[in-house]
Amino acid sequence: MSESRKLLNVYSEIGRLKTVLLHRPGKELENLVPDYLERLLFDDIPYLDLARREHDNFAELLRGNGVEVLYLEDLATESIMDSNTRECFIEDFLDEGNVVGIGTREVLKEYFEKFNNKELIDKLMAGVRKSEISKLINRSLVDLVDTNYPFVLDPMPNLYFTRDPFATIGNGIALNRMKTHVRNRETIFANYIFQNHPRFKNANVPTWFDRKENSPLEGGDILVLNSKVIAVGISARTDAAAIEKFAEKILYSDQPFETVLAFDIPKKRAFMHLDTVFTMVDFGKFTIHPEVEGSLTVYAITRSDRFYGELFIEKEESTLQNILQKYLEVDKITLIRCAGGNAIDAAREQWSDGSNTLAIAPGEVIVYARNYVTNKLLEEHGITTHVISCSELSRGRGGPRCMSMPLIREDL
Ligand SMILES: NC(=O)NCCC[C@H](N)C(=O)O
User: Fold this and answer.
1) Quick check: pTM over 0.90?
2) How far is CA 321 from CA 294, 318, 335, in A?
3) For the CA atoms of 254, 259, 260, 266, what is the dihedral angle to 10 degrees?
4) Which of 45, 136, 160, 348 is the one with CA 20 to 30 A from 171?
5) Is 80 exceeded by the pLDDT of residue 68?
6) Tens digit of pLDDT for each residue in 138-189?
7) Which domains does the chain carry?
8) Are 104 and 145 in contact (CB under 8 A)?
């Protein structure tokens, strides 16, 4: 198959971006209420209208740089055209959305009948308020018990962080199992897209991880450093056990990857995923949150040369710079510290994803405007920064890399 016709092709973090998956923030953001913010993994409530304008500018910037922008909501819609598929999709959603009352399920299914496929996808993403349903049928105890909870189906406000529910690696995907129940339903979309969407269904997309696994793996923790080395964070969201499963599968596949570097980072909200504290911006150049450097342990996972199918795991005993230099086989590694390492500025900019950049080509990244101290430093290191405004988008605790899932990057 020719390069341009490949459906999935990600062998680096920085190869020129050709196709990316986004989600335009929708009504789900208007179902965020203070009482449930923490559970829904938000710290504040974005103003939807402005969030959309900021997101549209992000998409426009990508298109202006020759990137094909696909939207999750469109691919999902095109994946449920067949009426049986649509029905199964709704069932899966209700199952995993914890809608267990028999009467409530019935009423919801009836309610969904009036929506066309696109409207249905938007509605499932937005969630269903109790007040939208005129009458609830009482068939089971759960239907009868009245609670103050305002939703019959929870909203999915984290969907615009397309980086996390699945991840493109090589010519396949890790279909993730998310750490929190609240984000796990997001992976249903990818499941249907890769099985049913006309663009992918006959492609037999290889999967390096499955959403039914027991331990969590999230896309923000996975960085494809080059065609031989993948970095994965052992983080607040991704477990070591999941990384082993993933490594086994990908290292014994037909892909060129030889090493998975597991970065053990502190398990706290401000660090969340590996890409919250560490992203690649150019050959041998990375952003990093200074607080993570000292406490970082790295394990190198390779194929065992004694037993086929087994892994060899070694704890690296050197500095991050030396470890990266060794595995990436480059002369020099430059770590660009968030806000230059100044304790106050670094903590402040880190909170709004100062280290979370999206590379659209080697040495060319998209960054948030508010992280101006870090952005200036990037420029001083020869990196071109494309700056986007983010006063609403940043309230969800994710940056440009978190808001994008590359499907195709040019090989380096
Ligand atoms: N890769 C990322 O760091 N994604 C950001 C996810 C933010 C979202 N509110 C979450 O807590 O999951």
Assistant:
1) yes
2) 12, 8, 8
3) -170
4) 160
5) yes
6) 777 777 777 788 999 999 999 999 999 999 999 999 999 999 999 999 999 9
7) 3-74+157-409 (3.75.10.10), 75-153 (1.10.3930.10)
8) no
**SS3 at position 265:** coil
Mean pLDDT of 126-142: 83
pLDDT band of residue 1 (cuts 50, 70, 90) is very low
Write down the pLDDT at residue 148: 82
Query: Which residues are known to be catalytic?
Result: 402
Q: Can you list the positions of beta strands (E) in 111-239?
A: 128-129, 151-153, 166-169, 172-175, 207-209, 222-224, 229-234
Does ligand 1 lie within 6 Å of residue 273's CB atom?
A: yes
- Contact indicator for 405, 20 with CB cutoff of 8 Å: yes
- At residue 242, the pLDDT reads 98
What does each C-alpha distance from 62 to 18, 116, 361, 369, 406 come to in angstroms?
9, 29, 11, 16, 11
> Which tokens sit at 114?
């009036």
Ligand 1 site, residue 239, Cβ cutoff 6 A? no
Structure tokens at 144: 């009868």
* Ligand 1 midpoint to CA 41 (Å): 8
